[in-house]
Amino acid sequence: MDEDKLKKSHMKVLTEQSILRLIAFKEQKLKGYKPEFISVFTEFIEKYFKKENRSAIQLEVLKVIQRIRPKCLYYVEADTIDQIILQNLSHLVTVPDVNVRKEAVKLSITMAEMENPFHCFEILDIIEKLMNRLTNNLKLNDSLVEPSADVVTAVEGLINIFKQLYDIHSAHCIEIFYLFVHHLHEQYKCPHYEEGLIKIRKMILEFFLQIRANKHGHIGILSQNEVNYCLFIKCPVRNNHINEGTPLEKGQPEHSITCITIISCTCL
């Protein structure tokens, strides 16, 4: 029996509690700068998350990553560390446990909330697959609604990202907008009234109702009765009409136009 087979057989023998203790030990090895940090971290997340199928172990690995990541950014480029994490989250849509998917989404949102998110589109791709998984399962089995806590967490996080970054990273926010529009469209094809699905629709619609456009078509977010417009995201404007809607009346505040009817945005 070669070395790889020995390792695999040994892993099968180890109990869940044994592996959890081993993870705690390995976490200590990941603290502080070491020349081999990248290789050790890569092996750790791949072995105990990507190749593991026990939920308790996967959840513990995600917790370790959440603790380790902020500290290691002092000595490892965020681009590098996040790329390693995302490579091992690429299969998230196939993970059966919704709690694992939910925690992984939280981690992904944390990475996307950075002022300069290096891999935002990769994160959005992972989240889009989770959202599509939910709606596709609804179509396949109309009588069985699977838990949607992962998508609820994703929508909450993406709304916050949009509000934080819409005047900085407009392309990311346009992608989020279209992702929401598509998901609503898919949900209403076969509407269900499970609590999580209702919450998802409600959050997205309430978010849309906070979006405003001025007479120039610039997009803004209503917050505490104020609107800050972004110069880099516009909706189509024709003769002071927003999507050929009703023009602004004299004396009417610019931010009174809602963008709920916007079906296309462009990034300047």
Beta-strand fraction estimate: 5-15%
**SS-derived structural category:** alpha+beta
Backbone CA Rg = 22 Å
N- to C-terminal distance:
60 Å
C-alpha geometry: flat
Listing every helix as H and every strand as E from the N terminus to the C terminus, the arrangement reads HHHHHHHHHHEEEEEE
Helix content: 55-70%
| Stretches with pLDDT under 50, minimum 5 residues | 242-268
Instruction: Give the overall pLDDT as a whole number.
Output: 83
**How many DSSP-defined strands?**
6
Biggest beta-sheet profile: 4 strands, antiparallel
Helix tally? Answer: 10
Strand sequence of the main sheet, in spatial order? Answer: 1-2-3-6
Write the layout of secondary structure elements.
Blueprint: H1 3-13, H2 16-29, H3 37-50, H4 55-72, H5 78-87, H6 98-112, H7 120-140, H8 149-165, H9 170-189, H10 195-208, E1 211-213, E2 218-223, E3 226-234, E4 237-238, E5 241-242, E6 266-267
Please give a structural write-up.
This protein has 268 residues and is of the alpha+beta class. Helices cover 57% and strands 9% of the residues. β4 and β5 (241-242) form a beta hairpin. α2 runs parallel beside α4 and α3 packs antiparallel against α4. The model is unreliable at 242-268 (pLDDT under 50). InterPro entries: ARM-type_fold, Tuberin-type_domain, Tuberin/Ral-act_asu.
